[in-house]
Amino acid sequence: MNRWQNLWRYIPLFGLMLLLSGCGNDTMSALRPRGPVARDQMFLMELSLGIMVLVTIVVFAIYIYVLVRFRKKKGDKDIIPKQVEGSHVLEIIWTVVPIILLLILAVPTVTYTVKLAENHVGNKDAIHVKVTAHQFWWQFEYPELGIATAQDLVIPKGKRIAFEITSSDVLHSFWVPSLAGKQDTNPGMTNILYFEADDAAVFMGKCAELCGASHALMDFKVVSKTEADFTKWVDKMKAPSVVAASDTGAKNGEQIFKDNCLACHAVSPQGLGVGPNLNGFAAREMIAGVKTRGEMNDQNLHEWISNPQSVKPGNKMPAFGPTGGKPLQEQQINDVIKYLNTLK
């Protein structure tokens, strides 16, 4: 009876595991590839899983057969079964079969690994992007296009994107599950990666290496557009940002921004400051890349400016609220928000 009672205790846990197995995000799943690189990696996962399942089935089948075939039956005498030793056939089978299985897995794995490296350097039509990881945000530079942005990686669909990935501080890892496997970002080193997106969509990316207090909040988005829309986005990023003279609040906010924020945050096509480039900031859907608390609206933006540690603990942005190191008055913060809302 105690044994059954112990079993019942685990049923809720099994039910919870079954329930959680249905959770997920279509734009952030390695099991739903949305590009050629992700499909190649999915094939390798399926191949390795298939080999493991095959080996498991064969081993358990032999195990169950032995249990049934050679079990001691009622009335049997205590005898020692015939001992099989030094069988050349068996030795060859359990040596050759694993080698064959390893080759089946190793050959495509090495092939796809070489393919990844060759396609990165061998495609002159690819769009090159330099990715720099920071605590806790992402910087994306397009050297051939003369622009740079943060948090939102914008790409044209169906076009190969070649990445050079590094870190400015600690070890991070660049990961867009729907498009490619993760690639570590190491300070002082540059790693390479490439991927393509099949269609115009938004894919979620994350840091896949524990990097500090807000590692779980180090999200970014890959925005895949049609080639025409991507060209329009590039042109808009290069266009100067102009605040209407009639918008007094935004004009005041622009001056306050220059006095307090411009030392870290650039607002220009190639802006590479200590903090994220805010060119096109108002077009983003999340503040500081935080999906849960950073939806782009005035209230969340006010909280971020006045107390950034409450949104993303451990980040390097100083607080500009009444209790911050560089306090701004309520009206000043509201004017800065008006200015930021013009950066589209």
The tally of strands reads 10
- In CATH terms, what is the fold-level topology of the largest domain? Immunoglobulin-like
Distance between the termini: 68 Å
**Name given to the CATH homologous superfamily of the largest domain:** Cupredoxins -  blue copper proteins
CATH architecture of the largest domain: Sandwich
What's the quick description here?
With 344 residues, the protein is α+β, with helices and mostly antiparallel strands.
Structure description:
By secondary structure, the chain is of the alpha+beta class. The protein folds into two domains: 26-69 and 82-239, Cupredoxins -  blue copper proteins (Immunoglobulin-like), CATH 2.60.40.420; 248-340, Cupredoxins -  blue copper proteins (Immunoglobulin-like, Sandwich), CATH 2.60.40.420. 39% of the residues lie in helices and 17% in strands. Strands 3-2-1-5-8 form a five-stranded mixed β-sheet. A five-stranded mixed β-sheet has the order 4-10-9-6-7. A hairpin with a 2-residue loop joins β1 and β2 (137-142). The longest helix is centred in the first third of the chain and has 35 residues, at 88-122. The model has no long low-confidence stretch (mean pLDDT 85).
Give the key terms.
344 residues, alpha+beta, Immunoglobulin-like, 5-stranded mixed beta sheet, 7 helices, 10 strands, 39% helix, 17% strand, transmembrane
